[in-house]
Amino acid sequence: MSKRTVLTGITTTGTPHLGNYVGAIKPCIEASHDENVQSYYFLADYHALVKNQDPQRMQQSTLEIAATWLALGLDTRRAVFYRQSDIPEIPELTWILTCSTAKGLMNRAHAYKAAVQENLDAGEDADFAITMGLFSYPVLMAADILMFNSTHVPVGKDQVQHLEMARDIAQRFNHHYSELFRLPEAVVEEHVAVLPGRDGRKMSKSYNNTIPLWLPEKQLRKAIMKIVTNSLEPGEPKDPDDSALYAIYAAFASPEQRADMREAYREGIAWGQAKQQTFELINDELIQARERYEALIAEPEHIEQELQEGAVRARAFATPFLDKIREATGIRKLV
Ligand code: TRP
């Protein structure tokens, strides 16, 4: 079992935006073509439940994110693509791991600590509105990862601590029972630029500055026209390294296109023209996938079928592996 196993989860809390595409979806789909890698990509709906308690939004987000990965060409015969909640072995493993997890380790989780701090700052009780779901989030995530004996986990910087916790939990289990788990590593893509949003800050739902991935053409153009620039006039040289618009262009451009656009900035391209070119570049990249996306959304049965098939393949690994894990803990048949 020496093959690299790459695994990552996407929480089903919202609508995919350009930042998700550039920073996660596109590199993951590309990586899944590597013959020497087995990839597992899944919709982390149990994780989403911590934040998203609106049933309609949960289902809609699951639909949109699944359709996105399929429309962008994820090859589901190679990669295993599934919904977390279709794999009952994951919550089972979560409990087993919960019993090997130090509470003190969870107390140190950044997300939990930030929630406590926010409460204290607001003069509330430290535990106000904090659920056990939020507190135990890292254990569920460790179960996602360890369930498939993953070796490499592509994540954003904010998730690195969760990977350290998964290793810690795996090591405790291995030490106490038997060496069943490989120790996973976080893969943080430093060279994948963090895409700025319309206002220049990191593109993120929490800043409300995102450009949704699947806007119809006209609306996409409008959204790009609204990216904030400065007041330099046409003909005045512009600094590409101080421009959210350029950073967004660059994330979609080839090295030659980037060099040409940098030159155009220095020569004083008008903002309106730079925006038009940025729109055309992004729209060309998405135009065919957008048609597939719309067709998929109109046919959720097909998406559901893909997820069911993915679940069967995921469980082909998870079921026997969980048997071994249970066996190791002494939870086993008497004879
Ligand atoms: N917590 C991750 C995030 O917010 C999502 C996630 C859930 C995940 N389970 C995972 C990522 C397992 C990698 C591996 O981005």
Kindly describe this structure.
The chain is mainly alpha-helical and about 325 residues long. It has 2 domains: about 5-100 and about 135-195 and about 300-330, HUPs (Rossmann fold), CATH 3.40.50; about 215-295, Tyrosyl-Transfer RNA Synthetase, CATH 1.10.240. Helix content is about 55%, strand content about 10%. The protein has helices at about 20-30, 45-50, 55-70, 90-100, 105, 110-120, 130-145, 160-175, 215-225, 245-250, 255-265, 270-295, 300-330; strands at about 5-10, 35-45, 80-85, 150-155, 185. The strands form 2 sheets. Strands 1-2-3 form a 3-stranded parallel sheet. The chain has a two-stranded parallel ribbon with strand order 4-5. Helix 8 (about 160-175) links the parallel strand 4 (about 150-155) and strand 5. Helix 4 crosses helix 7, helix 4 runs parallel beside helix 13 and helix 7 (about 130-145) packs across helix 8 (about 160-175). The radius of gyration is 22 Å and the shape is globular. The protein starts with a strand and ends in a 6-residue tail after the last helix. The mean pLDDT is about 95. Tryptophan binds next to strand 1 and helix 7.
Summarize the model shown:
With 335 residues, the chain is mainly α. It is 55% helix and 8% strand.
Total of helices: 13
Largest sheet: 3 strands, parallel
Tell me the CATH architecture of the largest domain: 3-Layer(aba) Sandwich
What value does the Rg take, in angstroms?
Answer: 22 Å
Encode the helix/strand succession as letters. EHEHHEHHHHEHEHHHHH
CATH superfamily of the largest domain: HUPs
Q: How does the overall form come out from the CA principal axes? A: globular
CATH C-level class of the largest domain is Alpha Beta
Q: What is the strand arrangement across the widest sheet? A: 1-2-3
Low-confidence runs? none
As a percent range, the share of helical residues equals 40-55%
Distance between the termini: 30 Å
What assembly state would you assign to the polypeptide chains in this entry?
single chain
- Strand runs, count: 5
The CATH topology of the largest domain comes to Rossmann fold
- Content-based structural category: mainly alpha
Strand content: 5-15%
Small molecules bound in the structure, each named once: tryptophan
Mean pLDDT: 96
